[in-house]
Amino acid sequence: MKSFLSLADGLPEISQYQPQCWVNVECPDEEDFLFLTKELGIPREFLSDIADIDERPRAEREDDWLLTILRIPMDGGGQGMPYQTVPIGIISGPKAIVSVCYRRTQMLPDFVNHIRRKGIAITNPTEFITRMIYSSAVWFLKYLKLMYLEINRAEKELEQSIRNEDLLRIMRLQRSLVYFSTSIRGNEAMLGRLRTTSRSSQVDPDLFEDVSIELRQAYNTINIYTDIVTSMMDASANIISNNVNTIMKRMTSISIVLTIPTMISSFFGMNVDVYLGDWHWAFLFIFCVSAMISGIAFFLFRKIKWF
User: Fold this and answer.
1) Long-range contacts of 222-225 (CB under 8 A, 24+ apart)
2) Per residue in 105-135, pLDDT tens?
3) Beta-sheet pairing, 21-26 with 96-101
4) 186 closest CA partner among 222, 221, 215
5) What is the largest CA-CA distance in the chain?
6) Over the stretch 69-106, which tens digit does the pLDDT of each residue have?
7) Which of 129, 140, 179, 198 satisfies CB 3.0 to 4.6 Å to 202 for a cystine?
8) What is the pLDDT, as a whole number, of residue 79?
9) Do domains 2-241 and 242-303 have the same CATH topology?
């Protein structure tokens, strides 16, 4: 699905394509492919590169078009992860600025609403890409706040009982943090490249500084949450190991306590003459002695906290 927006103040939406407008394409179909490749002349290889879910942030030029790939966050998206990142391609050239994303995200509508609310006019592709990186950093921080709530919820549940579901949830959050960290580092590298190659009149230096601060804050937050999740996983592993040791000690203690009467009854159950064989109270005597020795063993194990 594609939409056309003017780059004037507030990004007003227009009904059809106009030169030097913004063509926003989400989840492109065959009609969108034909429009981008035939009418605008965008290289098909650019669209194939953007479709790769593992594509890293980079820039590539072909003919009059410049492809810039960024990573933006989104919630869900399969693979059992609550949050992940997807590539978005920004293709700038003499005819238009084109953004292509193969997933529907919350960031792009929010980006448009933010530009309209602030009444910002985008004057060149470099500023457009810089503001897109800024918006991605803001959404990284939004999702990190949600992840922090998930981490706290999982931690409280682990305090009560350690279940496989809770550990798997923490593991998925840990994977999401890894994707976030890698994507932010890639976007930060792209921002540095834009700052180096752009002329001083293209983008306000304060905008570069604001985007850099947001990216740095998101990256530091990810490091903190990664340390928290790692410590939780280590603590859970230690608790599980300690519980296993405790169970094994109890099982060993129970086995020893039950082995004592078994061993005594085995002695008296041999097919040989025993001096208590003719005594009327022999069975009760042997039973009481076995129970007394087992009780002593139980008391000793309780004293050393094996029960």
Assistant:
1) 222/144, 222/177, 222/180, 222/181, 222/184, 223/181, 225/144, 225/147, 225/148, 225/151, 225/177
2) 999 999 989 888 888 888 888 889 999 999 9
3) parallel
4) 215
5) 114
6) 999 999 876 666 788 999 999 999 888 899 999 998 99
7) 198
8) 61
9) no
CATH class belonging to 2-241: alpha beta
Local structure of 148: helix, strand or coil? helix
Q: Looking at residue 201, what is its pLDDT?
A: 57
pTM: 0.79
Take residue 52 and report the two structure tokens written for it.
């790769």
| Angle, CA 127 vertex, CA 115 and CA 23 arms, to 5° | 65
Helix (H) or strand (E) holding 262: helix 205-268
Instruction: Locate the domains of the chain by residue range.
Output: 2-241, 242-303
Structure tokens at 143: 């999702």
Place of tokens 């076995």: 290
Question: What CATH number belongs to 242-303?
Answer: 1.20.58
